[in-house]
Amino acid sequence: MVTVNLGMLHFVLDHVYGAFMHRAKITPPFFSRGWGGSKLELLERMINQLFPDAAGQNWPPCLIQPIWRTVWETRTACLREGIFRTPCDEELLNALPPESHSARVAFLAPKLVPPEKIACVIHLAGTGDHTFERRLRLGGPLLKENIATMVLESPFYGQRRPMLQYGAKLLCVSDLLLLGRVTIEEARSLLYWLENEEGFGKMGVCGLSMGGVHAAMVGSLHPTPVATLPFLSPHSAVVAFCDGILKHGTAWEVLREDLAAQTAAMTLEEVRERMRNVLSLTDVTRFPIPKNPNAVIFVAATDDGYIPKNSVLHLQKAWPGSEVRWVTGGHVSSFLLHNGEFRKAIVDGLNRLQWKENPL
C-alpha cells in the first residue's frame, strides 16, 4: 500500500502553481521597469516615518466622504459600492498613477440592526485579487452574526490598475511600497469613517497573503483597538520576493542593469541584497504593537510553499498576546478550502474587543 504525505502534496502543489505562474514566462515578471528612481527614495523616507521611533508615527486618519450607489438590497441586507478620492498627501498622490487616485469599495451590511450593534471588517486584497467577489463571499455568511464586510480595491489593481501594467505584475519596486503605503492610508480612513461617521460598534481588518501583511500594518498603526486578522501572511515581503516562489517571477536582470546605470556594475547577489534592504521596510515586526494584541489572530498553513512557519512565528513573538492558528494545507489549497477557519478567526477576534459605548 502506498501512503501519501498530504503535507508534502500541499507543498508541492504550491510550487507547481508557482512554477506555472512565475517561471513559465507566460506573463511579464514583477518590476520589469526597474526600481522606480526618485519614487523609491520618496517611499523609503515616508515608510520610515511609520516606525515607533519616528516622531510623526501616530498620525490621525484623514477624513473621507465616499459617494455611494446601491448594487442590490433585500429585506435584511444591502450591498453598496462607493468611491472616494484617496486621502494621501500631495507627494504620495503625485507618485501614484492617475488610475489609482480614486479608491473603490464594496460595502455589505445587515439592515434592521442599529450600527452600534454591528461590527465591520475591512478586507484587503491579496496578490492578484482585482475584484470584490472573493472577499464578499468570505464575508457574506458573517451577516447573520451582524458583521458587515467592507472590501477595498487596492491601488494598482482592478479599475485602479495602470494601463501599462499586466495583471498584478507591478512595473517598479517603488510600486510595491506605494501600494502598501496608500492601502494603509485608505484603510485607516475607512475605519475612522465607519467608527465616527457611521457609528459602528466594533472594527476589524483582515487580508490574505499580501493583504494580510497590509492588515497587520493597519491594525498596528490605527489609533484605536481593532481586530487584526492576517491570513496566510508572512511577516515581510522579503519572504515572498527574496526567499519564496515570487523570486522566480522577478526581473532581476533589469533591476541589476537599472542599478548599474546609477552606480557601478553589481552582481545578482548584490542586487538581491539591495532588494532585501528595500523590502525590510515591509517587516511588520518593525511596526508598533497593536493597541489590543489579544485581538490579533494569525491563521497560517502547515505546509505553505510560499510562507515558512518561522515567518509567522516571528511576528507572533514580536506581538505578545497575539494568537496563531494552523490549518492543514498549503498556500493555494488553504486559500480555497479554509474559508470557515478564516471566518471563525474574524468572529473570535471581534469578540475580544469591547463594544464602543454609545454616546448619550
Automatic annotation (TrEMBL):
Gene giving rise to this polypeptide:
LOC115737788
Q: Which domain of life is it from?
A: Eukaryota
Xref: InterPro entries: AB_hydrolase_fold (IPR029058), ABHD18 (IPR019149)
Q: Name the chain's protein.
A: Protein ABHD18
Q: Name one Pfam family in it.
A: ABHD18
